[in-house]
Amino acid sequence: MALQWLIFLPMILPLCIVFGALQGVVTMVEKMAQRMWIDMEL
User: Fold this and answer.
1) What Å distances lie between residue 30 and 2, 8, 9, 12, 26, CA to CA?
2) Which of 2, 22, 31, 34 is the most exposed place for a label (fewest CB within 10 A)?
3) Helical (H) or strand (E) element with 10
């Protein structure tokens, strides 16, 4: 059981980091798009 975790953990950790970074980028882009949309409407 421990051996499985030693194999899977190094694979899962970068995926989690990449996924978190992607989520951050997506939310940032959405906020920027909303601001641009509001600026264009004014």
Assistant:
1) 41, 33, 31, 27, 6
2) 2
3) helix 2-41
